[in-house]
Amino acid sequence: MNNSRVLMTAVGSYLPANIVSNEDLSSFVDTDDVWIRRRTGIAQRHIVAEDETTADLAQHAAKKALTNAGLSGGDIDLIVVATTTPDNTFPSTATKLQHAIGAKRAIAFDVQAVCAGFVYALDIAEAMIQSGRGRRALVVGAESFSKLLDWEDRSTCVLFGDGAGAVVLELAENYNDWGILSSVLHSDGAFRDILYVDGGPSSNSLVGHVRMEGKEVFRHAVEKLAAVMDEALAAAQMDATQIDWLVPHQANIRIIDAMQKKMGMASDRVVRTVEQHANTSAASIPLALAVAVDDGRIKNGDVVAMEAIGGGLVWGAALVRFGKPY
Ligand code: UT7
């Protein structure tokens, strides 16, 4: 039997300095603070500066995670960056990050699963570590999602923000109930038309803007996230009472509250950052995780449940006992 476990030993995050409030948005698009707060829970979002890129955000978050783990770039064997907003079509944001942190021997590549990108990247990194491709990985969610927004479309432009979060994964032997306890992913391209960006390199047009049928996505989110969380719990042979913290994708406070109720969790066991960060796509889970670790809520050894859904549709959930037993 395989006694190896992939631990999540540290987290780091970064938000661009520029904050845009709901009031700020209402000065140029037909919206208002009351609508945005009531329908989404969002009060503000961080937006990248003109000369700031996704790789910059990723670099800040990754460096913090490495410092918190007591490691440097040279210790890392694998870098997986989840992003939908890479600096360029190629090279990958991960290779830029690799160079910036001096992770010379690492394998580095990007994963594109939009808002579910972090749970996808986590699953891939765990599988690669378990298959012997290295002992230590950086898994990063980083987005400059503001670059994909149509600032005249009030139904989407108020929802998103920019930022990055990173975690360090490390292989350990003989700690069976630590680290990544289970991970479940799903995809269904039949729903590709309810959330997408128009345009792109092979569509004979420049990258366009986010288009979304909000109500449809909302419906799928509540249904699919609840189901995939049940699967992740079953795979770990656990029940919801054993979860210390729910760290969900931060798209809409109403989706987060619905998940909390479906899982029967106490409200104060759910990490909510959507009010300050808005929806930062692949960055939202590691950003929220970093907030709750930094403020002392999530402690070494706590069981954390994560779930996310994004355009594709793609969705997934993971259960992790955070930190390290040694
Ligand atoms: O991260 C990927 C996953 N994404 C999600 O999970 C997003 C899921 N969807 C949602 O969060 C919600 O569907 C939205 C927040 C996007 C929209 O909320 P809703 O309650 O579904 O509103 P709606 O789209 O049905 O719009 C209701 C009304 C409409 O007006 P009428 O037609 O009723 O007169 C919209 O035009 O609200 C109007 N509206 C706005 N009003 C003020 C839409 N956007 C705005 C706005 N400000 N920004």
Summarize it.
The protein is α/β, with parallel strands linked by helices and 326 residues long. The chain contains 10 helices and 13 strands. The mean pLDDT is 97.
In the residues, how many domains can be counted? 2
Quote the distance from N terminus to C terminus. Answer: 22 Å
What string gives the helices and strands in order? EEHHEHEHEHEHEEEEHEHHHEE
* pLDDT averaged residue by residue: 97
DSSP strand content:
25-35%
Helix content: 25-40%
Rough outline:
globular
List how many beta strands DSSP finds: 13
Largest sheet: 5 strands, mixed
Count, helices: 10
**CATH class annotation of the largest domain:** Alpha Beta
CATH architecture label name of the largest domain: 3-Layer(aba) Sandwich
| Alpha-beta content class | alpha/beta
For the biggest β-sheet, the strand order reads 1-7-6-4-5
Tell me the Rg in angstroms.
Answer: 18 Å
The CATH superfamily of the largest domain is known as Thiolase/Chalcone synthase
Poorly predicted ranges: none
CATH topology of the largest domain: Peroxisomal Thiolase, Chain A, domain 1
